[in-house]
């Protein structure tokens, strides 16, 4: 092994003819000589070498626009950045490895703050982070720690696989399933409110389903970063009072919650306008768009939460949740009524005692477990009812607990979800694939690293360094109309 | 199996590329068993391995194992060969070479553990992204012809020169930027953009012909189909490549 050996790549039999690492380093650094074309041809067929070269090429770059952004591989506190999950107006979220506790976390790196107020803002951010960290609730993302890092701040959080409620809603899981997840998210939000925190940017993208199926509210707007002229949040979900320049409180979260739920149920938001005066006018008139096929009580509950004057909304998010859950009950009585009628008919036909028992049963579906013939028939008669009715019929008190049985999609394991998204709903899968830039599809990403915190922050289509130019990298404009919203959904001037 | 005599001819053979002499000396000292050098190398190694391995599998056990295997590979010569540390030629920084070697070890280990290299590398490109409200008509079109489109795309890709395909893979599937590819290729990023655009156009043209042939559609129909599908070419490429 001497002479010109270093110029060629030396196939090592145990590594399937792959070039040695020096050659890969050379290639990534642009320092190959003779064997360049051969190396490229090898990359074409060898995913492992492609991975190595790509990682090296990313590491040895690092200049230009993204100079201040830590790269995957960098150390932040005790955490090792693994990959970028998404970015938003406030910062970038990475999947990171915590070697001390030997687990993966989501690490949100908040942009360095600028200007004189930076210091006090940092203090406030950390104070709010502490409040969030104390808030242990299954439906709120767990914050492990918040630390200053140089002139930025990082937050280490529970890594939640997702999908988001938006993605869930696109698989058309049925109203009951959606409602159940929203009620869960609402509980998380309510707990935050009771701890004195306001989310400020609630929307379907900011609720993620954990691998155990629970809905988890993420991306708390840890501080209102705005000056007087700045509205923080996502247009389309922001309460009208924020456009009037008032401060966000629990009731503005309630508004955003109602917009989100409405959107997931109806496929579009209740108001056509997204911002400013047009939105104020429209909200004052009340939702003009229809919300078809939902119980009137549910619609009324949402309409109240969407009132222009915060004082006219539900007194608290808990009150709204109670209404939402109660809205399921008329469905129960409807189902019960059908059952009673059916039972009476059977009774008339001579199936006496069973029918009486069924008619008396408060929980019509559980009758099927006992399986007396008439009750079975009754259960079958119920079966064609929409999932919503069936679910509420099972347990009127708490739709949440029963929905998973009525709608398997509701109890999602992310893998199941992806499978479902792929098979049941091709369009959903396709759109899923519309990667935000920088979140370009990278085959090496493990499945557990779905976009985490700032799904909000759809990375901009023209993300630095993508040099899109002639290449149609993304349907960026289609993804996020209104430049502002695409760059950082969180900060809107 | 000693470092000294083998190293010298190589040094004299080394090309003009900037030489990382200190790194090379460190490697040589390690190969000859110098204790201080070994300790220093181990420090570099302990930093390099997590960076290389954690992205493949975030677990201390995995990182430890990769570290062990890499140490072994670096310093223990297999029968009739020399220890791997002597492969380092001082061209790039030693730390980078170590990361590359660590990635190789990690990939092999992962494959041994999981049975398939593909499992780690090709998982979930689709997975992490968001949805937006799609145009229902386009979606229908896309859904209806997605299999044919994919097939045509794969066939068209297979027809490209390996080099072009490799660059497309790096760009679309590995997510390198045109700048990063430009550095590898010694070309300006706008040049890389042009290459990629040309490859992409050639691909689309080929896909168009195949679809027209296969589906028996008119030119206009294929056009609107491609318009719908073509905008997603990068996505499809990410999946196919």
Task: Please describe what this structure looks like.
The complex is a heterodimer of chains A (493) and B (241). Chain A is an alpha+beta fold. Among the domains of chain A are: 59 residues, no CATH class; 83 residues, Phosphorylase Kinase, domain 1; 65 residues, no CATH class. Helices cover 43% and strands 10% of the residues of chain A. Chain A is built from 21 helices and ten strands. In chain A, the strands form three sheets. In chain A, strands 1-2-3-4-6-5 form a six-stranded antiparallel β-sheet, with helices on one face. Chain A has a two-stranded antiparallel ribbon with strand order 7-8. Chain A has a two-stranded antiparallel sheet with strand order 9-10. In chain A, helix 13 crosses helix 15 and helix 18 packs across helix 19. Chain A is elongated. Chain A starts with 20 loop residues before the first helix and ends with a strand. The N terminus and C terminus of chain A are likely disordered. With 241 residues, chain B is an all-alpha fold. Chain B folds into two domains: 119 residues, Orthogonal Bundle (Rna Polymerase Sigma Factor, Chain: A); 105 residues, no CATH class. Helix content of chain B is 72%, strand content 0%. Chain B has twelve helices and no strands. Chain B is elongated. Chain B starts with a helix and ends with a helix. The N terminus of chain B is likely disordered. Chains A and B meet through helix 1, helix 2, helix 3, strand 2 and helix 5 of A and helix 1, helix 3, helix 4, helix 5 and helix 6 of B.
